[in-house]
Amino acid sequence: MSQNYVVGFAFTEDRSQVVLIRKNRPEWQVGKLNGVGGAISPNEDGISCIVREFQEETGVITHDQEWECFAVSPTLKSDSKIFYYKLFNDNILTADTRTDEEVVIAAVEFDRFDTEGLSDLSDLIRLALDPTLEEISSKKRNKAYIH
Protein backbone atom coordinates (compact mmCIF):
# COMPACT_ATOMS: atom_id res chain seq x y z
CA MET A 1 0.00 0.00 0.00
CA SER A 2 1.29 3.47 -0.86
CA GLN A 3 1.91 6.18 1.73
CA ASN A 4 0.27 9.48 0.83
CA TYR A 5 1.03 12.88 2.36
CA VAL A 6 -0.50 16.32 2.85
CA VAL A 7 1.11 19.75 2.80
CA GLY A 8 -0.90 22.79 3.84
CA PHE A 9 -0.37 26.47 3.20
CA ALA A 10 -2.37 28.67 5.59
CA PHE A 11 -2.54 32.31 4.54
CA THR A 12 -3.93 35.43 6.14
CA GLU A 13 -7.14 36.63 4.53
CA ASP A 14 -5.27 39.39 2.68
CA ARG A 15 -2.83 36.72 1.40
CA SER A 16 0.19 38.68 2.65
CA GLN A 17 1.45 36.08 5.16
CA VAL A 18 1.72 32.30 5.24
CA VAL A 19 2.50 29.74 7.94
CA LEU A 20 5.54 27.61 7.14
CA ILE A 21 7.72 25.09 8.98
CA ARG A 22 11.52 25.08 9.05
CA LYS A 23 12.18 21.39 8.44
CA ASN A 24 14.41 19.13 10.56
CA ARG A 25 13.68 16.00 8.53
CA PRO A 26 13.94 14.23 6.19
CA GLU A 27 17.63 14.89 5.61
CA TRP A 28 17.18 16.50 2.18
CA GLN A 29 14.76 19.08 3.68
CA VAL A 30 16.77 20.05 6.79
CA GLY A 31 16.84 23.82 7.35
CA LYS A 32 14.43 24.57 4.50
CA LEU A 33 10.98 26.14 4.71
CA ASN A 34 7.94 24.11 3.66
CA GLY A 35 4.23 24.00 4.32
CA VAL A 36 2.82 22.23 7.36
CA GLY A 37 1.99 18.58 6.82
CA GLY A 38 2.76 14.93 7.19
CA ALA A 39 1.72 11.40 6.41
CA ILE A 40 -1.92 10.46 6.04
CA SER A 41 -2.73 7.83 8.67
CA PRO A 42 -4.66 4.65 7.86
CA ASN A 43 -8.42 5.30 7.83
CA GLU A 44 -7.81 9.07 7.53
CA ASP A 45 -8.53 11.26 4.52
CA GLY A 46 -6.44 14.21 3.36
CA ILE A 47 -8.67 16.90 4.89
CA SER A 48 -8.71 15.22 8.30
CA CYS A 49 -4.96 14.81 8.11
CA ILE A 50 -4.21 18.48 7.35
CA VAL A 51 -6.57 19.62 10.14
CA ARG A 52 -4.79 17.28 12.58
CA GLU A 53 -1.26 18.09 11.42
CA PHE A 54 -1.87 21.84 11.44
CA GLN A 55 -3.13 21.75 15.03
CA GLU A 56 -0.31 19.44 16.19
CA GLU A 57 2.41 21.57 14.61
CA THR A 58 1.03 25.10 15.12
CA GLY A 59 -1.55 24.91 17.90
CA VAL A 60 -4.18 26.49 15.63
CA ILE A 61 -7.54 24.72 15.40
CA THR A 62 -8.95 24.68 11.88
CA HIS A 63 -11.95 22.93 10.37
CA ASP A 64 -12.43 20.65 7.38
CA GLN A 65 -14.51 23.15 5.40
CA GLU A 66 -11.78 25.83 5.63
CA TRP A 67 -9.21 23.79 3.67
CA GLU A 68 -9.24 23.36 -0.10
CA CYS A 69 -7.14 20.87 -2.02
CA PHE A 70 -5.48 22.89 -4.80
CA ALA A 71 -2.96 20.44 -6.23
CA VAL A 72 -1.81 16.83 -6.26
CA SER A 73 1.60 15.55 -7.28
CA PRO A 74 3.43 12.24 -7.33
CA THR A 75 6.26 11.64 -4.89
CA LEU A 76 9.63 10.13 -5.68
CA LYS A 77 8.01 6.83 -4.69
CA SER A 78 6.10 5.62 -7.73
CA ASP A 79 2.63 5.13 -6.26
CA SER A 80 2.55 7.76 -3.49
CA LYS A 81 1.00 11.22 -3.80
CA ILE A 82 1.16 14.55 -2.05
CA PHE A 83 -2.10 16.44 -1.64
CA TYR A 84 -1.64 20.21 -1.29
CA TYR A 85 -4.16 22.26 0.68
CA LYS A 86 -4.73 25.98 1.23
CA LEU A 87 -6.65 27.98 3.81
CA PHE A 88 -7.29 31.73 4.26
CA ASN A 89 -7.93 32.80 7.86
CA ASP A 90 -6.39 35.46 10.09
CA ASN A 91 -6.46 33.06 13.07
CA ILE A 92 -3.23 31.62 11.68
CA LEU A 93 -1.40 34.61 13.18
CA THR A 94 -1.61 32.81 16.54
CA ALA A 95 0.44 29.87 15.21
CA ASP A 96 3.50 28.94 17.22
CA THR A 97 6.03 26.14 17.43
CA ARG A 98 4.64 22.97 19.03
CA THR A 99 7.16 20.38 17.82
CA ASP A 100 10.90 20.28 17.15
CA GLU A 101 10.30 22.03 13.80
CA GLU A 102 10.07 25.83 14.00
CA VAL A 103 6.83 27.50 12.89
CA VAL A 104 7.47 30.62 10.79
CA ILE A 105 4.80 33.18 9.90
CA ALA A 106 6.37 34.58 6.77
CA ALA A 107 5.51 37.48 4.51
CA VAL A 108 4.72 36.21 1.02
CA GLU A 109 8.08 37.05 -0.58
CA PHE A 110 9.07 34.81 -3.45
CA ASP A 111 12.76 35.79 -3.31
CA ARG A 112 12.91 34.50 0.27
CA PHE A 113 11.11 31.30 -0.65
CA ASP A 114 13.55 30.73 -3.52
CA THR A 115 16.54 30.94 -1.15
CA GLU A 116 15.16 29.52 2.12
CA GLY A 117 12.47 27.15 0.92
CA LEU A 118 12.33 23.77 -0.70
CA SER A 119 12.98 24.02 -4.42
CA ASP A 120 9.29 24.05 -5.33
CA LEU A 121 7.96 26.24 -2.49
CA SER A 122 7.55 29.37 -4.63
CA ASP A 123 5.75 27.43 -7.35
CA LEU A 124 3.33 25.88 -4.86
CA ILE A 125 2.54 29.18 -3.17
CA ARG A 126 1.93 30.82 -6.57
CA LEU A 127 -0.42 27.99 -7.48
CA ALA A 128 -2.26 28.30 -4.14
CA LEU A 129 -2.69 32.06 -4.53
CA ASP A 130 -3.64 32.23 -8.22
CA PRO A 131 -6.85 30.35 -8.98
CA THR A 132 -6.43 31.08 -12.70
CA LEU A 133 -3.40 28.79 -12.91
CA GLU A 134 -4.32 25.27 -13.87
CA GLU A 135 -0.84 23.79 -13.66
CA ILE A 136 2.71 24.71 -12.81
CA SER A 137 5.59 22.60 -14.02
CA SER A 138 8.53 22.79 -11.68
CA LYS A 139 11.74 22.80 -13.70
CA LYS A 140 13.69 22.26 -10.49
CA ARG A 141 11.91 19.04 -9.54
CA ASN A 142 10.73 17.91 -13.01
CA LYS A 143 7.11 17.44 -12.01
CA ALA A 144 3.78 19.12 -12.46
CA TYR A 145 1.29 20.27 -9.85
CA ILE A 146 -2.25 20.13 -11.13
CA HIS A 147 -5.37 21.81 -9.72
Brief rundown of the structure:
By secondary structure, this protein is an alpha+beta fold.
What does this molecule look like?
By secondary structure, the chain is an alpha+beta fold. It has helices spanning 46-58, 110-116, 121-129; strands at residues 5-11, 17-22, 33-34, 36-39, 68-74, 81-88, 102-107, 135-138, 143-146. Strands 1, 2, 3, 4, 5, 6 and 7 form a 7-stranded mixed β-sheet that branches. The longest helix is centred in the middle third of the chain and has 13 residues, at 46-58. The protein is globular and about 40 Å long. The two termini are 24 Å apart. The mean pLDDT is 90.
> What string, H for helix and E for strand, traces the elements in order?
EEEEHEEEHHEE
Structural class: alpha+beta
Overall 3D form: globular
Average pLDDT, all residues: 90
Beta strand count: 9
Residue runs with pLDDT of under 50 for 5 or more positions:
none
Radius of gyration: 14 Å
Which percent range describes the beta-strand content?
Answer: 25-35%
Through-space gap between termini: 24 Å
Number of helices, counting only DSSP H or I runs of 4 residues or more: 3
How would you characterize the largest beta sheet? 7 strands, mixed
The helicity comes to: 10-25%
